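A protein record pairs a chain with a discrete description of its three-dimensional fold. The following entry can be read in just this way:
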Amino acid sequence: MKRKSLFKSLVFVAAVCFYAVAGSAQPSATAAADVKGKVDEFMKARLDVRGYGGTVLVMKEGSPVIAAGYGLADEATKQPNAADTKFRIASVTKQFTAALVLLLQEDGKLNVQDSICKHIDPCGKAWQPVTIHNLLSMTSGIPSFTGLPNWGELRIKDMKPSESVALVIDQPLKAKPGEVFDYSNTNYILLGMLIERLSGKSYEAFLADRITKPLKMTNTGYDHGKERLPNSALGYTRRDGEIARADAASMTIPWSAGGLYSTTGDLFTWQDALLNGRVFKKKETLEAMLTPVKDDYAYGIAVMTDPNGRKRITHNGGIEGFSSDAVYFPTEKVFIAALVNNDRGNASDVLRTLTAIYFGQPYTMPKKRVAVKADPAILDTYVGEYRLAPNFSFKITRDGDGLVVEPTGQPKRPLFAESNTEFFLTVVDAQLKFLKDESGKVTAIEFTQNGRTSKAPRQ
């Protein structure tokens, strides 16, 4: 299941299921070169079509199948992305925060069943029944401050964690604690505050003392955002059809919910250490972290079984200028990570394709799309509402000589014609195809995003 990005949605609509490819045996050692070649071919084609790249890593039983960078870390200086380039990892941060909380439990400083109000002051009146367990598992019901209507204005301000929390401290809970999974960045800011209070150290220092230094993760840490880190990628976006520097957001805000930087190699080091018992003293601590509570979400990480029966441990993230995703298949002992320095890049798209390549399944190569002029007479026949899910639909309307699409809860976006029935978007990798019955009446659209197709009937 796709996890929310930290500050904004990087996908046009939420994906229902990832890595839904037919089962296949993992490639043998002799096939590793073939996997490497196909990954390289895909990433170069993607760079050619999209104009931006990132870094990717595929590991099998601790040995790299491919570790490579594509595109530019810095468009101005033409510094290339490399296998060890640092990227902001956004919500991939959350698993590190969760681990630090569990380390404090092993130290005897807390119990995850404690009320958060035992350790946090001030504490919201409605938060008394909320436990640390609820925060870790996203079942607290506490609203996310990043979901506030004025978040667009707030995100550029340098706010302390307590100031971020204060934005929602007087709001009612969205649900009774423990009943509903609801992704909230407030939860993990509160956990960061708890870590500092009980450890007596800053979040950054405690992370270094207990995780990054012991594991020799020299390319991982907290990105203050005040100056560029050595050997790091700058963040970009696509604006008016061109690649441009992403909007500057305050890095004091994401903090323990999404403020870390890392590399694909360090992310593997972390997963390898975590899953092989080199982070916690007790086996049951790791089991608690990796046990899903609701909607496949455990503590700071998702643990699920895909339609092919493969167990995977994963989390993605998105923040201005960056997209990240990493997955570990424990049975197959395969780790795949993708870090992209463009917030229109959707690292989960890359990860899904690399997964398909590794397991020998079909995937779609990127291609350049060319807009043509559609027959104006036919455009009016497409106007209407197309329902993709019970609470999600596409509204298609005319705009001058073209069409625009308005997904539920999202702004209108222009559609560009490839033919009289096929259209595409430029803000994301998404396409629409209008379907007709035998009489020529428009009955539905096929919506394809990042290679996945769904049907939305006309209402």
Q: What stands out?
A: Residues 11 and 145 are 20 Å apart (CA to CA). The first strand starts at residue 54 and ends at 60. Residues 32-50 form the longest helix (19 residues). The two ends are 27 Å apart (CA to CA).
